[in-house]
Design a protein that fits this description.
Layout: H1 2-16, E1 21-24, E2 30-32, E3 39-48, E4 53-61, E5 67-68, E6 75-78, E7 83-89, E8 98-99, E9 105-111, E10 121-124, E11 133-137, H2 151-162, E12 168-176, E13 188-191, E14 201-204, E15 211-218, E16 222-228, E17 231-237, E18 242-247, E19 253-257, H3 274-280, H4 287-316, H5 321-350, H6 354-361, H7 364-367, H8 378-381, H9 388-394, E20 402-405, E21 412-415, H10 420-428, H11 433-454, H12 457-470, H13 474-489, E22 494-495, H14 501-510, E23 517-522, H15 528-544, E24 551-557, H16 561-571, E25 576-579, H17 582-592, E26 599-603, E27 609-610, H18 620-632
Parallel strand pairs: 12-18, 23-24, 24-25
Antiparallel strand pairs: 1-3, 2-11, 3-4, 4-9, 5-8, 6-7, 6-10, 7-9, 10-11, 12-15, 13-14, 13-16, 16-17, 18-19, 20-21, 22-27, 23-26
Helix pairs in contact: 4-5, 5-6, 5-9, 9-11, 11-12, 11-13, 12-13, 14-17
Length: 640
């Protein structure tokens, strides 16, 4: 009995002591920015004790001047989302630069001890925009299991996909913490980059307290970017959504649904190092070091890693079924986009013959990874990658360019997307939504080219009907039809402005310029391109824009009076400039559907607006020449 008591006593002493275990060369799912061409950071060891969790990194560099540092903002995050603060760092300490060495430099960082039940965790340097991250650190025995969702949750995702092209209105109210009105920030941008870039781009400005609201009509879900203090937050806005947002000091957007339908991306904004996720999968590997077979194998490895990554994050951050599919689809999208890029670059660098390069790219082995492209999934159309999938997909030699004779003309034009209608069927076994989008996105350019070559609306109409027959999506057919109507309407140089508050404001500006063409330039002192353009105008205003001239440039802004007066005194002497109130300026923005600055408009002597405003990248003299050419051809209309 005494021996048993003594044994229990000694056992108690042993278990009360600091027991530690360690993992040498631990496994992890993936890492962000942990290596470069001249340096590499590798996690060598993890030690668990009752007082700390200690990570040892090995930093190697090709030159001593290469340096690295970790800040005290770094932390650990376990599979349940619990965070553990940094306690100490060996050597110089947190925030100090550590010189590189070719033989390696060991860096030890201690954190608060992990809970006993932790099986996998992440290392994050900084929060959301840190330099490094190691995701899914484990002892090699952890399995990244798929999340489980109910039939009801999966059915909701299928319903969202099937109604992707539904039309509707969305409402957003927002509050910005720490907003400074003096900076004139435009916090919310909504861009329809699906069918045609910048077809619908809307921006609003907050009040002095940082509050604003917006109601917008949508033809389909849009990925929207909230910009605040140079931090970017992505949200997905769908028709029917009613959302309340709060933009925090660190740039993260807190989003709350105001209607009964749950907002599709509720949890993703809280993920540390979120901006590193997609970028990692954009850099698969190097052809030269792997060869063709190795590169294809690496691409499939990354697709598998991306799937495991989605499984891990879905469980850790409690993704909804929608968020899980959205995340997984977009990661796979980025891997394939990178594959498309690298195969094009490599082949054209190493093969002088374009025909041989294109033939090689079309071989069966090199086509196999492309079949993993989620080209038929509506999720990819709501991608945070925006326009990237379309250009990579349609300009690959698999979708070979060819010349097509214009209807009713001997002229020909080159089109990358018409043949794609057949090629994506061969590649994926069916026509795809992405193929439809590529066709639609090329149609505006092709219609304009047809009109430039033939000046015959009938040829553009024949092309429109031809494209519509190839499309499988009713929404795409409607879009092509609307593009045709828009292209035809723009053959008439000027149009009557709608009756609205903006027209009243405009009349007050141009009333004293009767009989002249008025060139309106919208600008702000906080806009770099605006300032550069205005300084160019300043050089020619006094000399070439005389009081009696037929063209009058007018510079419009809603900057504060102090900033406006100082800038005009320095840069716009001799030119006509106007400072409007915020409400009057917004009325003009709404009337002209202005998406951002610098922005130009031309008003003719009859008070009509031009459909062909000059490119804001042109020099002032080029702009003047365009206005003169426009005025000389104002009476020309297309033959109907």
């Amino acid at each position: 009995m005494k021996r048993l008591i003594l044994l229990l006593f000694l056992s108690g002493i042993l278990f009360s002591c600091d027991h530690s275990r360690s993992i040498d060369r631990p496994k992890w799912l993936t890492s962000f920015n942990m290596s470069g061409p001249r340096w590499r950071v590798e996690l060598e060891r993890v030690e668990f004790t009752d007082t700390a969790t200690v990570l040892t990194f090995n930093y190697t560099a090709t030159a001593e001047q290469n340096r690295i540092r970790f800040t005290k903002k770094c932390f650990l995050s376990d599979e349940k989302g619990r965070e553990y603060k940094a306690l100490f760092q060996s050597g110089k300490g947190f925030g100090k630069w550590i010189d590189g060495a070719s033989e390696g430099t060991l860096i030890t960082i201690g954190f608060e001890p992990l809970e006993k039940d932790v099986k996998v965790f992440d290392f994050i340097e900084g929060y959301n925009n840190g330099d490094f991250a190691v995701i899914g650190i484990n002892d090699g025995n952890y399995r990244f299991r798929k999340p489980h969702y109910s039939r009801k949750e999966k059915a909701a995702v299928d319903k969202w996909k099937s109604g992707f092209f539904r039309k509707g209105e969305a409402f957003v109210s927002c509050a910005i913490e720490g907003y400074n009105p003096a900076k004139d920030e435009d916090p919310l941008f909504m861009e329809d980059d699906l069918f045609d870039a910048f077809t619908h781009l809307s921006s609003v400005r907050p009040d002095s307290l940082g509050n604003f609201s917006l109601s917008v009509k949508l033809d389909h879900p849009q990925t929207n970017v909230v910009t605040f203090k140079n931090r970017l937050c992505n949200i997905l806005l769908s028709p029917g959504d009613s959302l309340s947002m709060r933009i925090c000091e660190n740039g993260l957007a807190e989003i709350r649904p105001l209607n009964r339908d749950a907002y599709p991306l509720q949890h993703m904004g809280s993920i540390p190092a979120w901006d590193r996720v997609y970028h990692y999968f954009e850099s698969v590997a190097d052809f030269d070091s792997l060869g063709w077979d190795g590169y294809i194998a690496k691409t499939y490895d990354y697709l598998s890693i991306g799937d495991s990554f989605a499984d891990y994050f879905a469980r850790k951050y409690r993704f909804t079924a929608f968020e899980y599919e959205y995340f997984r689809t977009n990661v796979r999208n980025n891997v394939i986009i990178n594959y498309l890029d690298r195969r094009l670059d490599y082949v054209r660098q190493h093969y002088k013959s374009r025909a041989k390069a294109d033939s090689l790219l079309c071989c069966e082995d090199l086509l196999s990874p492309l079949r993993e492209f989620p080209a038929g999934d509506p999720m990819i159309l709501a991608s945070t990658s925006g326009w990237i999938p379309f250009n990579r997909f349609r300009y690959d030699p698999v979708m070979i360019s060819y010349n097509r004779t214009l209807h009713g003309s001997s002229s020909a034009y080159q089109d990358n997307s018409l043949l794609l209608a057949k090629k994506d069927s061969a590649l994926f076994g069916k026509r795809t939504l992405l193929g439809d989008v590529c066709l639609v996105r090329d149609s505006r350019r092709n219609m304009n080219n047809i009109m430039d070559v033939t000046h015959e609306p009938d040829s553009a109409l024949a092309y429109t009907d031809f494209v519509k027959d190839l499309l499988i999506t009713p929404a795409a057919k409607e879009k092509v039809e609307s593009i045709y109507e828009d292209v035809m309407s723009k053959q008439i140089p000027f149009y009557d402005l709608p009756s609205c508050a903006g027209k009243d404001v405009l009349q007050s500006i141009i009333s004293k310029y009767s009989g002249k063409y008025v060139f309106l330039e919208f600008w702000s002192t906080s806009c770099g391109p605006c300032v550069a353009q205005i300084k160019n105008w300043n050089q020619i205003c006094p000399a070439e824009i005389r009081p009696g001239a037929d063209i009058v440039p007018v510079f419009i802004t809603d900057d504060s009076e102090q900033r406006y007066n100082h800038f005009v005194h320095e840069n716009l002497q001799g030119c006509e400039s106007i400072r409007l109130s915020r409400s009057d300026c917004k009325a003009l923005w709404d009337m002209f559907n202005i998406s951002g600055i610098p922005h130009h408009e031309i008003i003719n002597p009859s008070g009509q607006a031009s459909r062909r405003a000059p490119d804001h990248h042109g020099t002032p003299r080029e702009v003047l020449r365009q206005i003169l050419a426009l005025s000389e051809n104002a009476a020309i209309t297309p033959r109907r």
